[in-house]
């Protein structure tokens, strides 16, 4: 595996090759970092790579459009596949290698073992996208087993997914530390996502409503409201006022269990899933007590 900040980026296509490269790096006493992605890289992904580079060398970026996490009516076929431009972006950052296997490499004929995190998988995204989380946790476990990173970096935009991965790593005694990183946003507050590219111009303008809904809830909590149903109603009103937006859910949940809360007084998430045309976008805000000011809340957008 090339030294950190070398160029061009080495592209690894097979599991055997990736395992050997990682074994070599670990044998040299180096700290291996992994940034798992499905490609179509944007500034959100690149921020994870930069964070990994501050803490690890080598940094491996996986690019794999995982068929197991797409439902039968979802956008697997049209999901953007931009390996060449993705690799150029990573080379400019000085990433060490790209692991870009074909689906048959990850799911060979006869594959039949799946990973499911019970309890955390059934609500919210699990309800809206049956089977999605089983596909996510299975492929992430496979990537962690193949690359054997000391640290793996995930964005917090997909908050429920990130929580499941943390739980899986804990329950299965994985050696990899799961590192969650902040949401990266566009100038109007829209959380960066590969799916933003699907939006028509008028839908893209309307998509800023997700951030406005979270900001409205934040303002309401800053004014003293703690009742979760009232806060959810505030978010719904903002979303419903945008004609191009259709809310799938707007909920406030416990940050550990992802079960609904009645009152905001401990670490929680405000979670949104919203359709703009045929595109479904996610966003969230983490809410937790401010240690320095009892009774006050801290917000992480």
Task: Please describe the topology of this protein.
Elements lengths: L9 E3 L2 H13 L5 E5 L5 H13 L3 E5 L19 H11 L3 E3 L3 H4 L18 H4 L3 H16 L3 E5 L3 H13 L5 E5 L19 H6 L2 H14 L5 H13 L4 E10 L13 E9 L2 E11 L7 E4 L1
Parallel strand pairs: 1-4, 2-3, 2-5, 3-4, 5-6
Antiparallel strand pairs: 7-8, 8-9, 9-10
Describe the structure.
- With about 300 residues, the chain is an alpha/beta fold.
- It folds into 2 domains: about 10-180, Rossmann fold (3-Layer(aba) Sandwich); about 195-290, Pantoate--beta-alanine Ligase, Chain: A,domain 2 (2-Layer Sandwich), CATH 3.30.1300.
- The protein is built from 10 helices and 10 strands.
- The strands form 2 sheets. The protein has a 6-stranded parallel sheet, with helices on both faces. A 4-stranded antiparallel sheet has the order 7-8-9-10.
- α3 (about 85-95) links the parallel β3 (about 60-65) and β4.
- α6 (about 130-145) packs across α7 (about 160-170) and α9 (about 210-220) packs antiparallel against α10 (about 230-240).
- It is globular, with a radius of gyration of 20 Å.
- Mean pLDDT is about 95; it is low at about 1-5.
